[in-house]
Write a structure and sequence with these properties.
The structure is a single chain. The chain has one helix and 35 strands. By secondary structure, the protein is an all-beta fold. The strands form eight sheets. Strands 26, 27, 28, 30, 31, 33 and 34 form a seven-stranded antiparallel sheet that branches. Strands 5, 6, 7, 8 and 9 form a five-stranded antiparallel sheet that branches. A four-stranded antiparallel sheet has the order 1-2-3-4, with no helix packed on it. The chain is elongated and about 80 Å long.
Length: about 475
């Protein structure tokens, strides 16, 4: 993507889809400074910060070293302070730390126990305009989970009557449970998926009172899990987006929940919902092929949701694929063959293979810069070597991919050309090598192949597993 911040060995580096991990200071001397919270390993949660244009991020700073290898959540208040909620490694108790913002940096305070009786998982945190904090989480007893909610009136210093206070219990025993708590104009809403089959919501007035009975928003056994999100517009509209073997959307106008709106007939992985001037925008991952997830978005700017389109044009299909055969001195345009699902259709008509002899080459062109290749072969090459180069406007400039050289000697290759978009060469220029001006990569044979490779698909789509937007 735009900038690589760090590596992570954690199971949930950026948490669950409904969580927050990317925040921005909204006022004061450091307005615009962004903060990313990342779990870098079991135990360790760190932060990195950057100022506009966000191409240079600080080395990660350790916040805690006692976090379970489980999802955490956080938020930033209007003063730039961050409230982090996570599960303690040794006990799985639910704890919070306040990161006080001062002088442009964040200082982690003491650990406070929200709940210290049973194991806790999958916390979600929200804040009212008056600073009151709310947390929902899943309490585990044996094999069962229960949904709990607690609040704090003193910036997280105390929760309810203390750590033994279980807060409000909103569900009975279920086999799995994920929640997101959000603050509406007049009510607190908890949206939660349970038992892998149902997405529900309950609410309580901010002024206090009883929680409403559950309203089921979606029901599909085995198909409703953690891939959902909820958000509130400035006008008070409550909306949810969720995956139910397809991407769907519903909203609440304060009186009734509206009908289900289909956003994408394909699954929506890690969906994110935000409002831009009261217009709902949904960002999500869509499986293009096995192990290839495209970052997509759709918005309702014209009264209905637009057809989903890639958010990252650099990670999609390739705009033009040309294959050059040195014996016949001819080019074949294999753009369609590179993107479709047909097996063994990527080869030059003269040679019957993709590449074989010195001088043979594959040219890959896109309108946007790209940093990654996913190469699928039906026949792997043997004995040969290739070089990689990009066009700088006058010459082909050789480079070694960040992921190491690949000589078409394995059938499924995820090839990292550069670590992120910021690392792509400054002098990489477009050229009208084929049908249009594109950024070109040339892969050329430098040592003859004994067996030439035959391809099935080449794209720039990586296997992104999750995404968290700033919202």
């Amino acid at each position: 993507m735009q900038k690589k911040i760090t590596e992570s060995t954690a199971a949930w580096p950026i948490g669950l889809p409904p969580s927050q991990k990317l925040m921005k200071v909204t006022s004061g001397q450091y307005a615009g400074r962004q903060l990313a919270i990342i779990q870098t390993a079991s135990g360790d949660i760190r932060y990195s910060q950057a100022d506009r244009p966000y191409t240079s991020w600080s080395a990660p700073v350790t916040i805690v070293t006692d976090a379970a290898d489980e999802p955490c959540d956080c938020l930033m208040d209007t003063n730039g302070n961050v409230h982090l909620v996570y599960c303690e490694a040794t006990t799985r108790y639910l704890v919070t730390r306040k990161l006080t913002f001062s002088g442009g940096s964040w200082l982690a305070g003491s650990k406070v126990y929200i709940y210290n009786v049973n194991e806790s998982y999958n916390p979600s945190i929200a804040i009212e305009n008056n600073g009151k904090l709310w947390v929902s989480w899943s309490r585990k007893t044996g094999a069962d989970f229960y949904l709990h909610v607690k609040s704090s009136n003193d910036a997280g210093a105390t929760w309810g009557t203390g750590g033994s206070d279980a807060g409000d219990i909103l569900t009975g025993a279920v086999s799995s449970l994920y929640s997101k708590i959000v603050v509406g104009l007049n009510d607190i809403f908890v949206v939660y998926s349970h038992a892998g089959s149902t997405l529900s919501v309950r609410s309580q007035p901010k002024a206090g009172g009883s929680w409403t009975t559950a309203t089921d928003l979606a029901s599909a056994p085995g198909n409703v899990d953690q891939h959902f999100d909820a958000a509130v517009s400035d006008s008070g509209l409550i909306a949810v987006v969720y995956d139910q073997s397809a991407l769907k959307y519903r909203e609440y106008d304060g009186t009734v929940w509206g009908p289900v709106v289909d956003l994408d007939s394909a699954e929506g992985i890690s969906p994110q919902l935000l409002f831009n001037d009261n217009v709902p925008v949904v960002v999500y991952l869509s499986m293009y092929a096995a192990g290839q997830n495209r970052l997509m978005y759709t918005s309702r700017e014209t009264g209905s949701f637009s057809s989903p389109v890639p958010l990252d044009e650099g990670a999609s299909t390739i705009d033009e694929v040309l294959v050059y055969d040195t014996v016949s001195s001819t080019y074949n345009d294999l753009t369609t063959a590179a993107s479709d699902a047909t097996t063994a259709d990527l080869y030059h008509a003269s040679s019957g293979v993709l590449l074989k002899l010195q001088g043979d080459a594959v040219y890959l062109g896109k309108n946007q810069r790209f940093r990654f290749l996913r190469i699928l072969l039906s026949t792997i090459g043997s004995g040969g070597q290739v070089t990689y180069s990009y066009w700088n406007g006058a010459n082909w400039i050789a480079f070694t991919p960040a992921g190491g050289s690949y000589n078409f000697d394995s059938s499924d290759k995820e090839l990292l050309l550069w670590n992120d978009y910021s690392a792509t060469p400054e002098d990489w220029q477009k050229d009208a090598l084929g049908a249009a001006d594109y950024y070109w990569i040339k892969i050329q044979v430098s040592g003859d192949f004994t067996t030439g490779p035959v391809g099935s698909r080449i794209t720039t789509i990586s296997n992104i597993g999750s995404v968290i937007t700033r919202r």
